Amino acid sequence: MSIQKENFRFLRYPGGKTKLLSYLSEFLPKNIEGKYIEPFVGGGAVYMFLSPEKALLADLNSDLIDLYRGIKNYPHKVWETYYTFPAGKSGYYKIRNEKDIKAPLYYRAAKTLYLNRTCFKGMWRHNLQGDFNVGYGGEERRWVISHKNLIDLSKLLRKSEITSADFHKTLANVATGDFIFLDPPYKPGEKEMDHAHYINGRFTFEEQKRLADRLKEVSANHDIKWLMTNSSHPSIRDLYQDFTIRTIPKGTSNIVGVFSENSNEVLISNY
Ligand SMILES: C[S@@+](CC[C@H](N)C(=O)[O-])C[C@H]1O[C@@H](n2cnc3c(N)ncnc32)[C@H](O)[C@@H]1O
């Protein structure tokens, strides 16, 4: 059972792929013999859509990974805490500004979820001291998620290994039969590339090259398949000349069949 529907977004996440699901679904595997691996998991739209039997989820954003771990292990406590956080602007700033380094995992997970659902535009930004510093956005998106959503997600996450890691480490763990979905931060200069969104700063072109090199190595094993969304920038296309590159149409999820402009994104795969 897939727990991600196109109209449900667990997290508001910069670069989230929920809107692309109907387009992507055509290119996703029907069966995965080994593990589903997602090295830049973010809001996990594709993972939840596929709801795989075995998965490895990773991201460099450790607050995000703690949120997944909190829901995996303590869905009820996360919900109870989330539920009792205050409504309104002053309540938001009170919770946002708490120093809670020693708070238990379930509390930190609930807080991250609360801030994500009530902050301005779902931004994910920290100051130099590492404190989340996005302003208040409102309550409208807070109750879109329910206790049941967290329980369903927890059941799915129990079948998954979740780790805070650089993509290189994650891609060292691939094996025959695995399927990898990759959605790295895009190349600087294009619309989606506001790197202030990402807690870990810039994803440089050197890292894009590192990623491409690793995916070439992985592709030597024909029983490992991967699919990636990336910028349509010529320098990215150049890195993947040996693979299949499709331009992703704009507006794909909203009006099926009406594609006018490019999205500035490509879909790249080794199959
Ligand atoms: C475009 S977002 C992924 C969005 C996701 N597909 C979704 O649907 O929400 C890219 C993610 O890569 C993570 N990231 C940035 N640099 C990374 C690195 N070197 N290794 C692993 N993850 C990284 C960011 O924290 C961010 O969560």
Write the layout of secondary structure elements.
Elements: H1 21-24, E1 36-38, H2 45-50, E2 55-59, H3 62-73, H4 75-84, H5 89-97, H6 105-118, H7 147-157, E3 160-164, H8 167-170, E4 179-182, H9 205-218, E5 225-231, H10 234-239, E6 244-249, E7 262-269
Helix pairs in contact: 3-6, 3-7, 4-6, 4-7
Bound molecules: S-adenosylmethionine.
S-adenosylmethionine (SAM) binds next to loops.
Describe it.
The protein has 271 residues and is of the alpha/beta class. The chain has two domains: 18-60 and 165-269, Vaccinia Virus protein VP39 (Rossmann fold, 3-Layer(aba) Sandwich); 69-154, Adenine-specific Methyltransferase, Domain 2 (Adenine-specific Methyltransferase, domain 2, Orthogonal Bundle), CATH 1.10.1020.10. The chain contains ten helices and seven strands. A seven-stranded mixed beta sheet has the order 3-2-1-4-5-7-6, with helices on one face. Helix 2 (45-50) links the parallel strand 1 and strand 2. Helix 3 crosses helix 6 and helix 4 (75-84) crosses helix 6 (105-118). The site of S-adenosylmethionine has 22 residues, from loops.
